Amino acid sequence: MKRLTTIYKLMLFIISVDYVHSHGCIPVICEGNIDNSLRRCPDYDNTCGSYGGKRFDERYIKGVDILCQPSSAVYAPFDGVITYQRPFRDNSCIDHGLRITGEGQWIGYIAVISYIEPIRYGGRVHRGDIIGHSLTLSCLPRPDSHFEPHILFQLYLQGQPVNPTYHLKECMCTGQVCESNVGNKLASVPYQNTRGFGKGWTLKCHAVQELTNNGEMASRLPDIYAPIDGHFLGRFRPMPLADGVEDYQCTNNGIFILGAGQWTGKNFTAHIYNAKFSIEPGKQTIRQGQKIGQRLDCPSESFSNNIFIELRYKGRFANFTNLILGEDCKLPPLH
């Protein structure tokens, strides 16, 4: 039984998928609030729903208030394990919540959602699962106060509070790029100049181990996913011809995407080296996280188990390290 469980877990990891979720961005939390809008600051009663704002009990809370009408469905922000939590420990009508310990892309993170009535009190959940319903706030210490209905959302990384605002709204974190690298882990220092490339990030991209029909483990080349939304997919070779002969090495082969949506038009482009596309190039709609290609196989090159990614804004290199790693999804100042 233990061996079957191990094989099942391996199969969960190695199944090739056509789409992966954005790395660092949190989907809709409350039913009806499709862009995760936050409670105003100041609100009608002069309290504040922003990160670090003063709440009804005069506390300054390192969390945000997500607008949420009473009895609305509340969804899991990411894959993880839930446990019941009392945020105030005072047995009031709003003293109910859930703690979600992250898995996959969100290992190391914990989300706490308060002012909800859970529909389950433990076990594993997936991103987007209904985990409870929002409570009415009529029993607050100041019942005469007038404020927008909401739930409280707090996020922690390695036990330290994190401002979740730009993980929830206007999220500009990129998608997972390599199938075998869930967290976009770096193979070298971030945002470096690399000879023959430009300025960007070297990401680990090792072969994927998968189970064959006869029960043996075999390796295959990992899939490549789109880091941004795009409207055009193409191929490029960064190095010029040498004596009229084109260089077909892995490091001289890549994919480029012209941005679309929040990565609008010609403002943003993404280049991925040591990769080839697996879908037809040209003008089309490309979703962030969509499978677009595969890593190349050049065992004679030291770069073979990595890919290199550049992100450019209006043709210029820009440091988007936090967006790549999913640590801070607010777009940095661009000039």
Automatic annotation (TrEMBL):
Keywords: Disulfide bond, Metal-binding, Signal, Zinc. The keyword Metal-binding applies. It holds the Pfam family Peptidase_M23. One of its GO terms (molecular function) is metal ion binding. It comes from the Eukaryota. The keyword Amino-acid biosynthesis does not apply. Residues 1-22 form the signal peptide. Residues 61-164 form the M23ase beta-sheet core domain. InterPro entries: Dup_hybrid_motif (IPR011055), LECT2 (IPR008663), M23ase_b-sheet_dom (IPR016047). Belongs to the LECT2/MIM-1 family. This is Leukocyte cell-derived chemotaxin-2.
